C-alpha cells in the first residue's frame, strides 16, 4: 500500500503529547487499584506501544482491519513482560502459559479484578485489563487524530470513554479525584481540538478559561447540594460475591456443640501466635430476635460482604506484626480462623485458595468450598494493642451503620439501670461488662459434669430468662449476646465475635513460637465496640469459669437483683418471641423470586463487565461510523438547499471511495456518473442524480426543500445499489474505511 505523508513532525508530536498525556492521567487511578507500582509497566508500555502503532499505521496508510491485526500481534508479543510477568521466563520470554493467560485475560481479567479487593496484585492475568485499556485507547485516540483531517477532534471521545471505564473499575476514593480528571480533560482536550480545527483564538481561550472557572465553582459549591451523600457508582461495590452468609446457620448458635462435643477434639494447630492474641472465627452484627448472625449482602462495611482479595490486604491497624501458620484438623464449616488484622493470606492449596473470601470490615474469612483436614495456610498479621479505659478517655464511638435489632424490653431497662451512673461511652461499656461478669455465673449446662443447668441459645426468650431470672447463669454465648444488645440499647454500636482463646498459649504451658493445639474447650465469644481513634475495642463479659452456683443455690435476699420495671404488654400485632429456643433454627432461605432476581442481576452485571473489552475493541469502528453519520447529517440539513442537493451527490462519491471505486480527481459530475455506472451495474440511475445536482448548483431555478428531500431518497437508493453490487467483504471494509474522511481521490466540488 502506498505511503501517505504524515502531518509535520511537530504537529504529530503535539497530538501524541496531548492525547497520550491525558490517557496517562485518566489511567493513573488504576495504579492504586493494583497496589504499589505493579500496573505502571502495563500502562506506560501500553500507551507507548499503542502510540507507535497509531503513528506507523497512519504513515503507511494501513486499513482499519490491518491496524487491528497489528494490535493483536503487539498485544501478544509484549503482553508477557507487561501484563503477565509471572508466567514468563526471567520476566521477559513468553511461554505457552503466557499466551493462554493473555488470551483468557481479554475476557476474564475484568471479572477477576472486580471481585478482588484492592490492592489486587499482579498475579496471573490481572494486569491485562489496564494493559488493554492503555494499548487500545492510545491506538484509537492517536489513530483517529492522525488519519482524519476533518474529524480529528473526534479523538477526544476516546479519553472520555476510557475515563468512564476507569471510574467504574476503580475505587470510591481514587488517588486522582474525578474532579481533577475532569479538569485535565477540559483544559487539555478542548484547546487541542480547537487548535486541530484551526479555530483557536485568544478570545476563545479567555472564554474557555471563564467557563472552566464557572464550571469548577458550580461543581464545588453546587454538586454537594445536588447529590448530597450519594456514593459514586463503582462496579466493584455492586457485584454480589458468590458467598452469601444467609445460606448458613449462625456460627454463634453452634457454641454449645463445640464446648460439649468437641471439648477435647483437636480442631486446628496454630504456630507463631503472638502473646495475648485471640483467634477470630466469625463476626456478627445482626440480631433478629432468634440468633446473632452476619448481615446479608449490603454495603462494603457490612459483616456479610465477603470478597476475593489479592496478594495483599490493606490495613491501617497499628500494632505488632507477626507471621502465623495454621493447619486445620477437625474444624469444619466455611469459617476460616484468622488472627488480628490480616495483611495477606496464603493458602497452600491453589484449588482451595480460589474459594477464599475476606471481609475487611470485620477481619473474618471464609472458604466457600469448606474447610478440610490437612488444609494449611499462612497469614501476615498486625495485632493491635487493646487500649485501656484511661487511654480511650472521653472518645466517642464511631458512627457505624448496623442492622436494626429485635430486642426484648427487659434488655433496655436492665442496661439503663446498670449503667445509670456511667459517664463516657467507654465507662458505659465497661460497666455493662463488669456487671455481667461479676453478677453472673458460668455454666455450659453440662449436668453430667456437675454443672448447674443452663439453657443453650441466645434468642429473645433466653435473654429474658438470663437478665430477669432467679439466677443469671450461662456461658460466652449468652453473655456476649446480652452485652451486645445492652450496649446497643445504650446507643453504642456493638457486634459479637466468636473465636478461640487458647488456654495453652495464655497459661504458658506451650513455649512462645511453638505450635499450639486449639480444641473446642478454647471457644469463646466476646463483644467489640468501636471508638474514634482506637477502632474496635474488645470486651469480655463472660464470668470466670470457677464462678459457678451451687445446685440448690437461690437468690440471696441481702444481695437483691436490680429492680427491673416490668414493660407494658405488647401491642396485638407485636411478634411474640419463641417460647423455647434451645434448638436454634438456621437463617431462612431467601424467597425464590428474590434469588432469581439476584441471579439475573448478577448475570447482567457480569455480562456488562465482560463486554467492556469488546466495547473497547469496537470503539474505533464506532467512532468512524459516528463521524460519517455526522457528516451525512450535516450535508442533509444544510441551510442552503442547493448545497443540500450537492451534498447528496458528495455522499454518492464518498460511498464509491469507501468501496474502492473512486472517480477521477477532476471529473465533472456527468463524467463521474458514467464511471460509477460502469463500476456498479446495479447502482441505479446515477446519471439522473448527477444532472439534478448540476441543475441545483448552476441553474437559476433554486430547488425546494421537498425536491431536496426526494433527491436524498434517490441518493440512499443509489448507495444501497452500489453496495449490493460488490461482495460482503468490500461492503464491510467500506463501513470501516477512512478513505472518504481523508478526502483522497475525490473530484473537485463545484460550488454554487
TrEMBL record:
Transmembrane regions: 12-31, 37-58, 65-84, 128-146, 153-170, 176-193, 205-227, 606-627
Keyword presence, Chloroplast: no
Segment forming the signal sequence: none
Biased segments, Pro residues type: 557-575
Record Pfam families: TgpA_N (PF11992), Transglut_core (PF01841)
All copies of domain Transglutaminase-like, residue ranges: 468-543
Biased composition (Polar residues): 584-599
Keywords: Membrane, Transmembrane, Transmembrane helix
Chain positions covered by the region annotation Disordered: 540-599
InterPro entries: Bact_TGase-like, Papain-like_cys_pep_sf, TgpA_N, Transglutaminase-like
Protein name: Transglutaminase-like domain-containing protein
Organism: Cellulomonas edaphi
